[in-house]
Amino acid sequence: MRIDIITIFPEMFEGPFTESIVKRAIGKGLVDIHLHNLRDYSTDKHRRVDDYPFSAGAGMVMMVEPVDNCISKLKSERHYDEVIYMSPDGELLTQPLVNQLSMNENLIMLCGHYKGIDERIREHLITKEISIGDYVLSGGELAAAVLTDSLVRLIPGALSDETSALSDSFQDGLVSPPVYTRPREYKGWEVPEVLLSGNDAVINEWKYQQSLARTKERRPEMYNLLEAKSKK
Questions:
Q1: Looking at the domain 2-152, which fold is it?
Q2: Which has the higher per-residue pLDDT, 50 or 232?
């Protein structure tokens, strides 16, 4: 997989992409991540990429020309499956969406800033808009890092145990069950006896029931959706 990220703050990705699973995946050659400073594609002598909006209104707007220049150059070099704009009013990032995007080969992510981007970018250059939640960040960099991390961990070989991702929360429409490790007892707090039984069938059923109960308690909208599907 190749991911190209367009940003005016490429340094913001140094931490997320130089540690942990993403770092290992890059080192193994499983993913290529390329950062593009949008200012390098500006024709302004001061490398400006923003301007005042037409009509009254506070804040600056990212200009169409630098974004078009960057995306056009990238698309002249290879085919991209999606050009994604990280936007608070985009499609909510969910595990099914991550699963779908992980099947692609080449992705572009555009990180917005200021008051947003010129609408013509969204109309003519963007193929998918994604939000990581109903709140506003200072820019799209953190959102792009979140999306990238969620994609990379699904690439075969990125995790030391490839089956681990299959048991993550949301993969089956449920949140994960509680997990425990040694010691067996700590300050009188004990590991549930069922997990020590060695009976895989019983343990798996316990985990499933725990996931159901947790989903019903903590994410009732997910639980109700499962209930509705089971009645069809």
A1: Alpha/beta knot (3.40.1280)
A2: 50
